[in-house]
Amino acid sequence: MDVSKVLAWLNTLPTPLFSPSVTLKTSDLHGNGLHAARNISPGEILVFDQGITVNEKIIEILVQITGHENALRLNWDTYALDAPLHGGAYINHSCSPNVGFGDDRALIAIKEVQEGEELFLDYGMSETARGWEMPCECGSTDCRKKITGEDHKNPNFREKYGKWFSPYLKKYWGIDEPSSLWNTNEESTTEKLTSW
After folding, report:
1. What does the pLDDT look like over 79-111, one tens digit per residue?
2. What backbone phi and psi angles, to 5 degrees, belong to 163?
3. Kind of pairing, strands 120-121 and 92-93?
4. d(CA 13, CA 4)
5. What pLDDT, in 10s, does the model give residues 143-179?
6. Which of 40, 36, 1 is nearest to 22 (CA)?
7. Predicted structure pTM score
8. CB count, 10 Å around CB of 9?
9. In Å, how far from its chain's centre is CA 156?
10. What is the distance between the alpha carbons of residues 98 and 109, in angstroms, rounded to a whole number?
11. Where are the beta strands (DSSP E) in the chain?
């Protein structure tokens, strides 16, 4: 398979919509990452993923060809695939996240974030691929040292972050508790996104 053709196709895909509250720059932890461009309040929409929907097999093939993925898991076998922004993903992992899911494609602040602070998502909030794992050196006092597709099964992890899980995991675990920070009014969400 011609890698240059695959990369050219990937670059035709949509990129996520980023709030004016965030900026992409060099991370102290790994590569590049999103940072707060100003102080951010809990519940603010930070990213809306508008990538195409693909299955897990496509992601596996792309990782083999390109060495990285730029996708957000939407369901057990479904991802939103985006154009690579800088050769990789746009948000880094931390075991002490300040970002969670408002819905399957919207990432929101789950706590106060100060201007200049990096934004982190705990990948265990959505990733469930069998056999998937990555080492973690986030430096958090809560660091699990290894992030896996099984983390959502840990009752302590669910207790702490379950309400910020991707919707398919919330449904699977019977987590009905909506975030009090997330406004599920579709009209106000659309208005917010179109103002970006």
Report:
1. 999 887 654 557 899 999 999 999 888 999 999
2. -70, -10
3. parallel
4. 15
5. 999 999 999 999 999 999 999 999 999 999 999 866 5
6. 36
7. 0.87
8. 11
9. 21
10. 6
11. 17-18, 22-26, 32-36, 45-48, 52-55, 71-75, 78-81, 92-93, 99-101, 106-109, 120-121, 133-135, 146-148
